[in-house]
């Protein structure tokens, strides 16, 4: 495609024009890469990316090198644009002979770019997810719970690495299988673990929408009888003489409710 | 300034504990190196071991100290004869005030108990207070309004009351913390009757006429029927009652038939 370009230009204009054209492309490429650098910077700043990534290890590392996440991404875009301009210029000037190598390199460049971007995004999103999950779990003062944020972080890292490696054309089939097994295991385990909660929640949705009984009613569920104190998504609290039964909602469905009217 | 230095040294000498009301990590770490520090504030952002959550931003330092002391005694951080030095913030900025107080100087008013040991969750009680204070500040279209919130033990309260009109909260799932509630309650407060709120903060009903037995309820003279109903329902059930007075604009809280807390909405 690009080689066709070069021959067309050569046919219309002279050899010399093609040379000057490639110089022009180089200069324009420089301008464009600067513009895209500025544009990406402004876009990311407007999207409040600096505030979002603040404090993540990647941002801190970037700041150690005297730049920031936004700076790294913007520079990456600028370099990509300029590299594209150089290749275009070279092909117009027909300076490169080993066509096959360059053609492959040209098609490889965007993939490299996407891989770098995926790696950066993965690092930041992973750290952010870890932070978010640990924040949510902060009220649970349980040392074992600290494993979960780490697990979330490395899961995100793993997926990001898969995307990046996939872009670069590395064989990742084995890693993909591993991911599949991991995901399946996670889904199966959580289904197994949360099965009762899911059923209670499904029953709870019906109860909350239709309200077959309300707070203050006297009801009997199975053997427990009392006044309804609280109706939630997962449980119904009924109280009788200082004894508060917390009944899971699926039991309400299975055993049925008796409303007691005087 | 040696006289002043001496005075401050005397003030803080042999205190049993330090109560830190402003949260700054460096200050906490400095103080914690010396001895027992109890942090009292809306959030435990310094991860202190001894922490008392302050549900309301009491404007008056004495109220804040009282709440902190009751909470600290309840949690066993200090005993009742402890000498306590309080480091607090009265004006803007960092901690600027040091006071010294004996823990038994206050008679137990039960404010801490009201928030923490009631049936309803502390955050629900706090939200109801905020709604009442907000309502007291703004009123209904500029006119003062009164309102009565019965919080917790909703099932029993419902059985000790009857509806005055249809219940606007029937089959709705509104909780006191929700942003829409302020507007809704403001509208409904125009009508008579009490609001019933469950332990978890769900607004169960409005327009309830409370029918508790008022026997033996002793509330200060001069308060009207609304306060009487509040005192009586809190005595007859395990609920607490929060009242916004229409005549003097104060917010009062009752628990077990007794007036526990009195707040002026204008101070918040």
Provide the descriptors you would attach to this structure in a database record.
heterodimer; A: 262 residues; alpha+beta; SH3 type barrels; 71% helix; B: 268 residues; Pyruvate Kinase, Chain: A, domain 1; YojJ-like (1; 2 domains; seven-stranded mixed sheet; five-stranded mixed sheet; 31% helix; elongated
How is this structure best described in words?
The complex is a heterodimer of chains A (262) and B (268). Chain A has 262 residues and is α+β, with helices and mostly antiparallel strands. Chain A has 2 domains: 2-170, no CATH class; 171-262, SH3 type barrels (Roll), CATH 2.30.30. Chain A has 9 helices and 5 strands, in the order ααααααααββββαβ. Chain A has helices spanning 2-12, 15-46, 49-53, 57-64, 69-93, 99-136, 147-168, 173-210, 249-255; strands at 218-221, 224-231, 235-240, 243-248, 257-259. In chain A, strands 4-3-2-1-5 form a 5-stranded antiparallel β-sheet. The mean pLDDT of chain A is 84. Chain B is built from 8 helices and 12 strands. The model of chain B has no long low-confidence stretch (mean pLDDT 84). In chain B, strands 7-9-8-6-10-11-12 form a 7-stranded mixed β-sheet, sandwiched between helices. Chain B has a 5-stranded mixed β-sheet with strand order 3-2-1-4-5, with helices on both faces. Chain B is an alpha/beta fold and 268 residues long. Chain B has 2 domains: 2-108, Pyruvate kinase, C-terminal domain (Pyruvate Kinase, Chain: A, domain 1, 3-Layer(aba) Sandwich), CATH 3.40.1380; 118-267, DNA integrity scanning protein, DisA, N-terminal domain (YojJ-like (1), CATH 3.40.1700. The radius of gyration of chain B is 21 Å and the shape is elongated. Chain A binds chain B through residues 208, 211, 214-217, 226-232, 237-239, and chain B through 153-159, 170-171, 173, 196, 198-200, 202, 204.
């Amino acid at each position: 495609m690009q080689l066709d370009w070069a021959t067309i230009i050569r046919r219309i204009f002279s050899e010399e024009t093609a040379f000057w054209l490639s110089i022009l492309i180089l200069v324009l490429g420089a301008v464009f890469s600067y513009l895209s650098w500025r544009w990406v910077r402004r876009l990311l700043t407007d999207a409040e990316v600096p505030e979002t990534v603040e404090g993540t290890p990647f941002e801190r590392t970037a700041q150690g090198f005297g730049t920031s996440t936004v700076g790294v991404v913007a520079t990456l875009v600028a370099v990509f644009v300029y590299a594209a301009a150089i290749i275009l210029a070279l092909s117009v000037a027909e300076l490169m002979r080993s066509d096959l190598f360059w053609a492959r390199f040209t098609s490889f460049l965007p993939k490299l770019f996407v891989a770098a971007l995926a790696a950066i995004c993965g690092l930041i999103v992973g750290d952010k997810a870890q932070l978010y999950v640990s924040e949510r779990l902060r009220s649970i003062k349980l040392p074992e719970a600290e494993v979960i944020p780490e697990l979330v972080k490395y899961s995100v890292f793993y997926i990001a690495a898969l995307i990046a490696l996939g872009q670069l054309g590395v064989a990742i089939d084995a890693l993909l299988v591993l991911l599949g097994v991991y995901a399946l295991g996670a889904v199966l385990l959580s289904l197994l673990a949360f099965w009762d909660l899911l059923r209670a929640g499904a029953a709870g949705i019906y109860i909350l929408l239709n309200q077959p009984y309300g707070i203050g009613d006297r009801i009997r569920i199975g053997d427990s009888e009392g006044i309804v104190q609280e109706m939630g998504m997962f449980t119904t609290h009924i109280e009788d003489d200082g004894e508060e039964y917390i009944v899971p909602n699926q039991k309400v469905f299975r055993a049925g409710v008796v409303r007691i009217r005087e | 300034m040696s006289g002043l230095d001496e005075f401050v040294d005397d003030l803080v000498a042999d205190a049993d504990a330090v109560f830190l009301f402003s949260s700054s990590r460096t200050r906490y770490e400095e103080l914690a190196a010396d001895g027992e520090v109890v942090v009292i504030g809306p959030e435990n952002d310094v991860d202190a071991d001894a922490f008392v959550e302050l549900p309301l931003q009491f404007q008056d330092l004495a109220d804040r100290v009282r709440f902190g002391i009751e909470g600290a005694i309840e949690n066993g951080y200090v005993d009742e004869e402890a000498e306590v030095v309080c480091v607090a913030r009265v004006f803007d900025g960092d901690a600027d005030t040091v006071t010294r107080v004996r823990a038994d100087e206050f008679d137990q008013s039960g404010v801490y108990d009201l928030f923490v040991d009631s049936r309803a969750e502390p955050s629900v009680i706090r939200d109801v207070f905020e709604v009442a204070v907000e309502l007291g500040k703004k009123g209904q279209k500029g006119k003062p309004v009164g309102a009565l919130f019965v919080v917790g033990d909703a099932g029993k309260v419902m059985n000790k009351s009857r509806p005055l009109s249809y219940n606007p909260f029937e089959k709705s799932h509104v909780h006191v913390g929700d942003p829409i509630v302020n507007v809704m309650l403001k509208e409904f407060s125009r009508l008579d009757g009490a609001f019933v709120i469950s332990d978890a903060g769900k607004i169960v009903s409005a327009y309830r006429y409370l029918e508790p037995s008022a026997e033996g309820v002793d509330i200060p003279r001069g308060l009207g029927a609304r306060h009487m109903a509040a005192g009586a329902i809190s005595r007859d059930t395990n609920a607490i009652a929060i009242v916004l007075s229409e005549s003097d604009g104060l917010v009062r809280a009752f628990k077990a038939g007794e007036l526990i807390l009195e707040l002026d909405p204008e101070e918040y």
